[in-house]
Amino acid sequence: MATYLEFEAPIQELEEQILKAKEIALTTEVSMEDTIKELEDKLVQKTTDIFSNLTPWQRVQLSRHPDRPYTLAYIDALTGGTFQELHGDRNVKDDKAMIGGFGLLDGQSVMFIGQQKGINTKMRQYRNFGMANPEGYRKALRLMKLAEKFNKPIVTLIDTPGAFPGLEAEERGQGEAIARNIYEMMRLKVPVICIVIGEGASGGALGIGVGDKVVMLENTWYSVISPESCSSILWRSWEYKETAASALKLTSKDMKKNKLVDDVIPEPVGGAHRNPQENFENVKKYIIKALAELKKTDPKKRIDDRIEKFCEMGVWK
Amino acid sequence: MVWFKRNKEGITTSTKEKKETPEGLWHKCPNCKTVFTENEFINNLYVCDRCSHHERIGSKEYFEILFDEGKFKELDADLVSGDPLNFSDTKKYTDRLKSTIKNTGLKDAVRTAHGKIDGQDLVIACMDFNFIGGSLGSVVGEKIARAIDHAIKKKAAFMIISKSGGARMMEAGYSLMQMAKVSGKLGQLAEHQLPYISFLTDPTTGGVTASYAMLGDINIAEPKALIGFAGPRVVKETIGRELPEGFQTSEFLLEHGFLDYIVERHHLKKELSHSIRLFRS
Fold first, then answer.
1. Directed axis angle between helix A134-149 and helix A174-186, to 10°?
2. How much is the pTM?
3. Which residues pair with B35 in a beta bridge?
4. Do B178 and A255 touch (CB under 8 A)?
5. Do B206 and A203 lie within an 8 Å CB cutoff?
6. What is the number of domains present in chain A?
């Protein structure tokens, strides 16, 4: 059963009409072909209309769509089942909100790392809603260093509402863990591609978000704070989340325009979840092309370019 | 029989002739409520003589305390924030900047300077909490980045005095990327084998903790400073119960292995200078 967001209501209506028409055709032998064709055309038109005029807040809602594919679904599709998950930070425990391991992409071994959200209530809890603890970031760093040692490129998939703000997380140094990752990722000798596939919330995202290519899928958001928290801090109320979403300029289009990300990967009409296969194909194509390009540069130059890119970000007078 | 007799009813002194006690003569410690004269307090480096409470101070005071004879050369003093996102919440960001610059006399939330500490070269980037909560925006990132370049050029030791609520929301994505920018620059400093000392003061939270404040060759802090990634209120809401006593203080962080030492303001210059000497002799 598909889930529909509020602004998708007209789409839901049309899809239900099509379903009904098909049912009638099946049970009464009345020819419904013309009606169905007409409805389907209308659906395509309507979907295109709605999705070409989304507000920033609607994009935020899409990025959190319950049917949207999560990290492991991407990795499975990209590696054709050759992914082998590796566990643990070698210090405290294995963080289930952060996953990683090698897999074959187009015949070549790649280190995949990303936050993992759960697909149902039980799994969401198990994955801690994609909010990693310090050990998650330290696992990610261990795996990045492993990739560097064997000269394998790294692809990180970002999808998190933030780093976990718990008591143990503070005790074990959430700040230090994220800081260390940012510092070390700047200096990795292998190519690094970071892709925001859902939510890119603040330091929790940046903790695996420093790379030669930092890109966003079309219907994702990436900023320093979620629109809800921004609303509660700056407007002192949860009511202004839509205003905050617009003010933060957190959509892929705005982030690209402001040169804070390198590229935007387009999604199928209606969002990644409406046609996951096409979506995975887009992502795969992007990674293969970007890796080929990055490999041409020598590691020292790649690191310098990476630092230089981040140094150019910002506006001052 | 009465000793004194009131001749006229009510207060008769005109407002013009009224004598006010001049402000700024006294300081009351917010912790133990002891009252000092302002001069005593300043001479004691803004530390309460009785309970040793360290009052929050800014770049002006730290530069005076740390640099030999209070002498230094300020770097990039005129850099000010733009408004890249045309941001407006309850107030326009440009108006907020203007009024804060006017009220604080500061240009942004960090000042950077080059001077000597016991004769050794030192570049300091010191954050000012008075400026929009010491928030990390483009100017803070850029000034620190340039200060690191300066330290590399002059082969000087480098220090950041952190005092910040975290990211500057009005610069959203730009603010976030300053964390990456400064961390990248610190890597370049390390290549030149120049020591980076991170000094954490009350408060250091959010994006500053999650980047340069935790990346020192040594991390040191003032006593009882609030240091954390998530703010205490957020942590409390997350776990749904009261926080333990002393949670997220300097002492807590030292105990959990994230600080090298805690230093009282009176000993700061001596200890800092000694650390630098041990790195460089």
1. 20
2. 0.93
3. B28
4. no
5. yes
6. 2
